[in-house]
Design brief:
The chain has about 375 residues and is of the alpha+beta class. It contains ten helices and twelve strands. Strands 4-3-2-1-5 form a five-stranded antiparallel beta sheet. A three-stranded antiparallel beta sheet has the order 6-8-7. It has a two-stranded antiparallel ribbon with strand order 9-12.
């Protein structure tokens, strides 16, 4: 039948057939990708299913664009025009791909922000999304310029020089930016952590931003630290490797005390405090360790664990009160610091500083004990 048609009619028929074929293939591809996405989501691969769903529209549009190009090339009077201006089709294809990649980048950042990972912080997730979209569209723009035979090498060289100048001008800002990325990716400091700086400040991390990190002190004030300085300082993170931490309480008893009895009483008090007040780690049994023979006491430390930083203060507060009360009940003495002065001279001793005299009874030894 095609033999009875004119060349123009034959071209139009072939053009229509190409368009119909492209529509059919695009519909089949869209349906197939929908089925694949549904199976992936049913198997628990939500991220993979979302990624396949995002591919449906760009793939279908690319198939339709290819069909339109081939259909236009079938028309004799249009074929040369299509060949001469085929770069416009290439630009459309690039734009379709860019839109698809932009959607994929947005979805990826949304997924990352929902995870408990190093990039879950909203500020850095938002920045990551903007950087990804910027890179995608810069590469797409370069491809579009190349489609029109526009040389981009001089422009890239100019951008390199301009980028160097901007980098030097924003050196501190960029240092803080990359330091923030390093801090979040390394997971050494996260929002909600309790940290102590080498300068003495300690508090809860409110946020790790693009430029600085904000720490809320116990006084409810905010300390703002540039990220570059934070990464260069020594930090004690009280919530790593986990939030449970040891609480050390120092005390001392007189040399006349029964150390076995002191240990039993102190540990009994510690266990009782952990049972009666919230925040104690009951899985860890308190311990007592004698540390030194001091001037007036035998010093020791009692160690137990709290579930978090905030609980340690209440537990230590109640433990000190209960231990002091129990020691009084058990007649266990916490001695005052004392100094014992022994004089064997019967003569008057002149005070070195003020010239005051100290008299002692003749021929006898005087013991004098004073509390400091």
């Amino acid at each position: 039948m095609l033999m009875t048609l004119s060349p123009l009619q034959r071209d139009l028929v072939e053009m229509g057939a190409a368009l119909l074929a492209a529509v059919a293939v695009a519909a089949i591809a869209h349906r197939a990708l929908t089925l694949v996405a549904g199976r992936l989501e049913a198997s628990g691969s939500t991220v993979a299913g979302d990624s396949v769903r995002l591919m449906r529209q760009p793939v279908a549009l690319l198939i339709l664009l290819s069909g339109l190009y081939m259909a236009a090339a079938q028309v004799s009077g249009v074929a040369s025009l299509v060949t001469r201006h085929g770069n416009y089709f290439e630009v459309l294809a690039v734009l379709i791909v860019l839109v698809g990649l932009t959607k994929a980048a947005n979805r990826a950042v949304v997924w990352v922000s929902q995870q408990d990972g190093p990039l879950s912080h909203c500020a850095h997730a938002s920045l990551l999304r903007k950087v990804a979209i910027l890179v995608i569209w810069v590469l797409g723009t370069i491809q579009i310029l190349l489609a029109f035979d526009i040389r981009v090498t001089p422009a890239l060289a100019s951008l390199g020089v301009a980028g160097l100048a901007v980098g030097l001008a924003l050196q501190d800002t960029l240092a803080n930016l990359f330091a923030g990325f390093y801090t979040v990716a390394d997971r050494s400091v996260n929002a909600g952590d309790y940290i102590k700086l080498e300068t003495g400040e300690e508090g809860f991390v409110e946020a790790v931003g693009w430029r600085n990190t904000r720490i809320r002190l116990w006084s409810n004030n905010i300390v703002v630290i540039p990220n570059a300085k934070l990464t260069q300082s020594v930090i004690t993170n009280m919530t790593l490797p986990d939030r449970v931490l040891s609480v050390y309480t120092w005390c001392g008893v007189s040399y006349d005390s029964d150390l076995e009895r002191v240990e039993a009483v102190a540990l009994d008090v510690a266990r009782d405090v952990l049972q009666r007040f919230p925040g104690g780690d009951l899985s860890y049994d308190p311990v007592l360790r004698y540390k030194e023979f001091a001037d007036s006491n035998i010093n020791f430390v009692v160690i137990f664990r709290a579930e978090d930083v905030g609980s340690q203060y209440l537990l230590q507060h109640e433990f000190i009160k209960a231990l002091h009360k129990r020691f009084k009940e058990q007649d266990i003495e916490i001695s005052y610091p004392v100094r014992k002065v022994v004089t064997n001279s019967a003569q008057q001793v002149s005070h070195a500083a003020g010239g005051a005299g100290l008299a002692a009874s003749e021929g006898g030894a005087v013991n004098r004990t004073g509390r400091v």
